[in-house]
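Q: what does this look like with 4-O-methyl-beta-D-glucopyranuronic acid bound?
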Amino acid sequence: MKRYLFILLFLCLQVRAEDGYKLWMSYSKIEDPKTLNFYKPRLQAIVWEDKDLEVAVEEVKLAIPKLLGITPKKGGKNGLILKVNPQINITNPEGYKVSVSGQSITIEAPRSVGVLYGVFHLLRCIQTGQEPAGEFSPKIQHRMLNHWDNNNGTIERGYAGMSLWKWYELPERLDPRYKDYARANASLGINATVINNVNASARFLSSEYLVKVKALADVFRPYGIKVYLSVNFASPRILGKLPDADPLKPEVQKWWKEKADEIYSLIPDFGGFLVKANSEGEPGPMDYGRTHVDGANMLAKALKPHGGMVFWRAFVYAPDPKGDRFKAAYEEFKPYDGQFDDNVIIQVKNGPIDFMPREPISPLFTAMEKTPLAMEFQVTQEYLGWATHWVYLASMFEECLKTDTRVKNRKTTLSEILQGKTFGYRHTAITGVANTGSDRNWTGHPMGQANWYALGRMAWDPDLGAKEIAQEWISQTLSRDSKTVSDIQSMMLSTREIYVNYTSPFGLHHVMGEGHHFGPEPWVEKAPRPDWTALYYHKADEKGIGFDRTNTGSNALAQYPKEFSAPFSSLETCPEEFLLWFHHVPWDRKLKNGDIFWEAFVKKFYQGVKEVEGLQRDWEKVKGKVPQETFENVSARLKTQHKEAIWWRDACVLYFQTFSKKALPAGLKAPERTLEEVKKIVDVYHIR
Ligand code: GCW
């Protein structure tokens, strides 16, 4: 009987261990003899003095017994030596140095958080079979998550449950998850979190909420994470009962100043504000005939005495049926270059439209010489299949960061610009809209965890590659068997292009479901705004498809440096994956491989579906080699993904065929349903 109970208990523990809660910190036992031989003798003891190092020590104590099967004792001469040394010479004050000598490993940093980062680095090295040594400094100063979480617990564009923050329990009860959230972020080097939606409720600034925010900040602080708030620009009117929120009025300025003072009295290291102003109906300075500069600088002045920052978003566009939304952010912000206060950063989405599966880089990144810009990536898969499609976003982040912008007419990657190397930024930042939620495994899709992981790693070092990050992540989560790691790694690296193939080949964009942004709806011609329709973007007609952004069209290309835009400007030289971003391509235009455009276009959708089938087959092969629960979870989601890939294919092929009036390429089987039938599927997803 006892034995059965034991087995039952063991099985329960197994199941718990596989539910994904522990993210990349489950620390399964190391089997590799070489790694064990190197680390075991050096981790028999932990040596530290500084009290601030307690959280770092806690991580070592948690991980080492699981990884190496030993329990490090406290103190001694050899072992893991952790030291805060303000005198140490290092590139970035958040960095750390690791050295190995004899039987010890020393991690030294000017700040305790650096030592914590060093510990996580060490744990990563153990799990990836590397020996640690060298100096490690973040290349970006502000490494942030943006949560689009509302005070009622919902998450805008969140697909993994409800908000992590339980406002009704705070400040008294601290969900243990808050600490695990902080640990996970610290393990990647993320040092900032904006905890609420940019479509911000003013309530977050009320005294009632600020004590709750303080409770979270207190949990995050030991992990080096600063809390920021998204603010509603009309707060002085909504909360302060002032007649308006005009940034040039002294009483409005006073309100913000006093609010900042109140926040800092509770949270002395508060990060600052993130602002979405005069965008998609949010209030802003333009409501009073003022500018983004007036608004941002007014907030900057309130925060300045406390060392706080303003992250002001460039995601601003006016509805104009004849215009080109692509150009909006540049037109709005370029004229203000150099006018923002020194604690303002302009936060720019990676592409000019809105987190599409593939976008060219936002031209603003190439154009603001006197204003620091922050990169805003989207980790939550709003336009990339929510939590049912497997898309490893690091490939997309990498493509964007490695883009050669040709700024200064030389090789200048976007990564270099973000690091401040090109224009000498005073502040540098990479942010990601979080994909976390209350689901037990945090991200809904188990593979979505890798996207959070990658965002953090790339914010620390934007020159890291998607490939190496995948390898790290797999070794810490799914398997350390080299064949399994490389099999899963190749699957991960293929997923983004597969998604592009069955949803948005050749630069097709903004053809998703209206409002909810799920599934295909390329036929949307009416929406609350003209630039929320699909027709605005694809412009399909009997001649061809795509948005002419050359000088015969909107001329958006002129916003880039000439040396960058030149190849994109002509149909002959435009990289094929961006064709429909910049050209209205005739259906019968010949492509490089000899196909006419219509045929090549249709083939991509079919190819995408086939590739999902390939993913399903490849995933089957790792059965028994990865945790069973994850295996089953991913298998099931792949089935949904397959079904939905066919849906995308049928919708796009049948709809665009009504313009091209051409037959499907030989050998492809026509969809089994009619366009009208496919349109009905979409209706099911509509909320209204
Ligand atoms: O992508 C769009 C989303 C909105 C979002 C907006 C933004 C928070 O559909 O839900 O609002 O972008 O980035 O502000």
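Confidence is low (pLDDT under 50) at residues 5-16. The pocket of 4-O-methyl-beta-D-glucopyranuronic acid is lined by residues 148, 156-157, 198-199, 276, 280, 315, 354-355, 382 (CB under 6 Å).
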